[in-house]
Amino acid sequence: MTATETLVAAGNRAHSHGPGSPVPLQARSERTTSYDVADFAVPNGREEDWRFTPVKALKALFADEAGTETVKVDVQAPEGVVFEPVAADTFKILKPQDRSAAVAWKHADKALAVRIPADAELSEPVHVNVESLGGRGFGHLVIEAGRHSRAIVIVDHTGAGELGTNVEISVGDGAELRMVTIQQGDGESVHLAQHDALVGRDAKLNHVAVTLGGKVVRVATNVRYAGPGGDAVLLGVYFAEAGQHQEHRLFVDHEAPHCQSHVTYKGALAGESAHSVWIGDVLIRAAAEGTDTFELNRNLILTDGARADSVPNLEIETGEIVGAGHASATGRFDDEQLFYLQARGIDEDEARRLVVSGFFNDIIGKIGVPEVAEHLHDVIEQKLARTAALTEATAAQ
């Protein structure tokens, strides 16, 4: 019996997401993955994986053509870290799950491999700066944390144009890796990314996604386990403004016993047509006894005209687990909090700033990289200032 047949037997049915044909029920593990671009049709927006995404803006990254611009990559790393270009198919932790990832796999000239030696404990983060120079470009990054190593890798995406990237992450047995990916492209930039991580026996991965800029950003993060005792903590912070689309898709595939995963993503939205999408899929396979997993998504709507879509999903094939759950909520400001602050002499704009800062603070505190946390606070302050100006202008009309 397939995973889909199991779900149907349990009472689940095909469902509809609006006008048109019903969306057939499909287990997350049964979706197509392939290195061949031809195995993926060009999305039209009616597919389950693309129904929230503005696909018309992504045509250039769906085209099976070489890039028109070279992506500039700069690496700053402590002594002992090896970084070098390698053939794109040297590692195959990642398997493209959609057309854009398959196109990026095919047309990225070389992969950049960043290797942390076994038993190394880095005193400073590795910085990988990826700048899109305009036009259409592709990138491929491999991060390899050797056995029992301790490291932080920060990947910062900036620039203009249209960028398709793939990131492969290998966390060796007993290693601890914190990987921070920051999306802050120009106002008209487009960035589609797939991150695939393989977490070793008794290893820990902290994957942090920070999305602050770009017109359309879509980051798909997938995690698998190479042995028991693996631990994955997936954190995300995003702030979408007028005209921005920010999308985060996660898939945690528990295929080894006694592993953990904890997902926490928080986002704020302000401005007309600001749109965020969060999809959280967790699969606990029959062999993954002793699994402990939870996923959480929270969205704060700051102005009219903004929209947040949030879809958590759990597929469980064994009852022998520690725990599994999910929670999702989208709402506006808490008027009681605003009233409490204003009653103590704090003006409305400052009160709103404090509420939003409090909303993000718990997750920013978990990022564990002071320079990233400070930068994130600064950008959120700038965005809140623009939101306050927009609200004042609207009220004056």
List the helices and strands and how they pair.
Elements: H1 3-9, H2 59-62, E1 72-76, E2 82-86, H3 99-107, E3 111-116, E4 126-145, E5 150-171, E6 176-183, E7 190-199, E8 204-211, E9 216-225, E10 231-240, E11 245-254, E12 260-269, E13 275-284, E14 292-301, E15 307-316, E16 323-331, H4 335-342, H5 348-367, H6 370-396
Parallel strand pairs: 3-4, 4-5, 5-6, 5-7, 6-8, 7-9, 8-10, 9-11, 10-12, 11-13, 12-14, 13-15, 14-16
Antiparallel strand pairs: 1-4, 2-3
Please explain how this structure is put together.
Residues 1-29 are annotated as: Disordered. This is Fe-S cluster assembly protein SufD. One of its GO terms (biological process) is iron-sulfur cluster assembly. Pfam families: SUFBD_core. Belongs to the iron-sulfur cluster assembly SufBD family. The protein is α/β, with parallel strands linked by helices and 397 residues long. It has one domain. 19% of the residues lie in helices and 41% in strands. It is built from six helices and 16 strands. The protein has a 16-stranded mixed beta sheet that branches. Helix 4 (335-342) packs across helix 5 (348-367) and helix 5 packs antiparallel against helix 6. The protein is globular, with a radius of gyration of 21 Å. The relative contact order is 0.09. Residues 1-24 have low confidence and may be disordered.
